[in-house]
Structures are given as C-alpha cells and as structure tokens.
Amino acid sequence: MRVPDVLYHFYEKSLARGLTTGKLPHHVGVLVDGNRRWAKLAGAPTAHGHQAGADKIVEFIGWCEELGIKVVTLYMLSTDNLNRSSAELEQLMGIIGNTVDRLGESKRVRIQPVGAKEFLPPALSEKLDRLAQETKDCDGVHVNVAIGYGGRREIVDAVREYMLEASEAGKTLEQAAELMDADAISRHLYTKGQPDPDLLIRTSGEQRLSGFLTWQSAYSEFYFCEALWPDFRRVDFLRALRDYADRQRRFGF
Predict the structure, then answer these.
(1) 81 annotated active-site
(2) I want to staple 203 with a disulfide (CB 3.0 to 4.6 A). Which of 10, 50, 126, 229 is the partner?
C-alpha cells in the first residue's frame, strides 16, 4: 500500500473512532449531485456519470449500515429533472431501476419510494411498488428513494389528501380548514410516520436544497461538500457526521 493510502486509511480510522454513537443522526438525507459534471470532467458519456453515481449509492448505504444509521433519503430524480432529454431520461430510468434492484437484493434494506410516481415510466413505478412490498419487513436501513420528487409537489399532495380525507369523513370545507394544522399535513407527507431528517448532505459544492424535503427539513442541519457525488468518499461522510456531532441543535430556539 502506498504511503498516501496508508495515511488516508489511518485518517479515516481516526475519524470513525472519534464518532460517538449517541451523537450520530438517525435520519440522513442526501442530494446526490454532480454525476453529469463528473462525466464531463472525465470526458465520458453522461450515462457513465449516472452509473458511477448509482454505484456510489450502493456503497453509501453500506456505510450507513455499518454506522447504524437507520433512515436514509436519497434525492435521485426531481420533478424538474424530468425536463431533460428523452434519451438521457431513458438511460437514467434504467440505471435507477437497476440500482433499486441491487439495494433490494441485499434482503437487509427496506425500500420506500417517495415522489409522484405518475410521472415515472409504468415499468419503473411498478418495480418500486414491488420492491416496497418485498422489503417492507426488512429491519435494516430504511431507504427512501426520492424519484420524481419535488418538495412543493409533496406539500400540495399532502394538503389534497387531507382535504379528501376530511370530505370522506363528512366534514365541510370550513370544518376541514379549521382543523388543519402542521400535524395534519405531516400525516399525509410521502414520509409520514418517519422522523424528520437530522442531517442533509449535498455534494458538488452547490449550497441550496432545490426543493428537497422542504417541509421536513425545517430543523435539519445542512452539510455541503465540494466532492461530486461519484467521488464522495467514506472519509467525506465521516467528516459530515463529525461536523453534525459538533453542532448544538436548537430546533428553532
């Protein structure tokens, strides 16, 4: 092993030893950004970047499993991304489908799709539903795959479901409006029943959330990393966790 590799390995081990289990986030959200730029810098087709990003997702879930992180939400495809060229989207949908298959094959990961599945190709939507059913009893990492996801769309869908539920219960519009509160909306989000994310990580150096978990991230801690997603290393993840552990969370106070 080369000297730089030895030093890197030592540094990674040191970071891992310094983490306190009680201070690790329960739920981590990740904006897996930078696949296209990675491919461009490598002089490779865009699909190669998406595939490298998919391989990193499988590796990343393994890190989370090792560290005992219970819930992960991966921002894989936004509603805005659906405006890309049909050729790129066709390749990307295939890569996403293969990636969720790989996650499901472990028999340890629980997969839950979050997003507007009506925007997805029927084959991918059906696959996500099938994997959600097949993995619902897995007790490993709970992985939310945000595909065809938009934060504003999620809130609109939650309000719509709440209003329809109120109507079915025989409530008037005025009664439904009077009873509506933050808890009522939360109960109808794509991630209903789950804890809000403690930590959101975005790769590629961009410092915005782009509609990711708009409602749920009200009190999340944010960590922005310069590495493009395919280049994101375990040491980068450990640094993010160390940074999170060092913060004093105030929850709005």
Answers:
(1) yes
(2) 229
